[in-house]
Design brief:
Blueprint lengths: L1 E5 L2 E8 L6 E5 L3 E7 L5 H9 L1 H19 L4 E4 L2 E8 L6 E3 L2 E5 L4 H27 L5 E5 L6 E3 L4 E5 L7 H14 L7 H10 L3 H11 L6
Parallel strand pairs: 2-4, 6-8, 9-11
Antiparallel strand pairs: 1-2, 3-4, 5-6, 7-8, 10-11
């Protein structure tokens, strides 16, 4: 990864063997990132930043608002419908939850907290996924916990389920919505009107939860 500066917009460049087109991402913590296909020329990054400047600047303003919301948490982190107080402890290397307290290493504890959330995500998602799939009369083949930047969950044609650990930073109803969304894909692997009608029947408030995730999803970071 390399860094560039296009006028007043600083950005990093990352090459990806999977990327087919130039892509620009604006992250709350990491700033502006340009993803280039493996064989794309370096100048393609500058051209993309120049072309997308109004959009990038708008997203940067949104990112600043997101950072302000995250900073407002203080020494706490959300966990579904609860708030956990961060308690730094000298000598600790792993995060450990004790009731509504989260014991963490001194200093930047984000990596240790993420590892705890990844472990907890399987514990939170698995029973919800089992219950929803049983109610629908469908079965899934595997469950994976990941940390995708642009996707909250997915269901493969073979029934492999993948969920983003960051969903534990959202309200519980949002996690439930995402679980039902993916379980309904076991029956309808598309986003056709029939899929949304199936989801509405199983999770009537999906529109509100989907809107919450679109509005506040960028804040679901440590």
């Amino acid at each position: 990864m390399s860094s560039r500066d296009e006028g007043e917009i600083a950005y990093t460049v990352r090459r990806s063997t999977r990327a087919r087109n130039v892509r620009v991402n604006v992250h709350a913590h990491d700033g502006v990132e340009v993803v280039l296909p493996a064989r794309a020329p370096e100048r393609a990054a500058a051209a993309a930043v120049s072309e997308l400047r109004p959009w990038i600047e708008r997203r940067m303003r949104e990112a600043r608002a997101v950072r302000e919301q995250i900073d407002a948490r203080g020494a706490t982190v959300p966990y579904l419908d609860r708030t956990l107080a961060l308690v730094p402890q000298a000598g600790r290397i792993r995060a450990h939850r004790r009731g509504d307290s989260l014991l963490v290493p001194v200093g930047d504890a984000r990596a240790s907290i993420e590892r705890l959330y990844r472990r907890a995500a399987r514990v939170e998602v698995a029973p919800r996924l089992d219950r929803a799939s049983a109610l629908l009369g469908r079965s899934y083949s595997a469950l994976e916990i990941r940390g995708q930047r642009t996707r909250w969950a997915s269901c493969s044609p073979e029934g492999r389920m993948s969920f983003n650990w960051r969903l534990l930073l959202a309200p519980e109803r949002v996690l439930e919505y995402v679980v039902w969304h993916e379980v309904c894909h076991l029956e309808r692997l598309d986003h056709s009107p029939a899929f949304w009608e199936l989801l509405r029947g199983r999770w009537p408030g999906y529109r509100e939860d989907r809107a919450w995730l679109r509005r506040y999803g960028a804040t679901l970071v440590l």
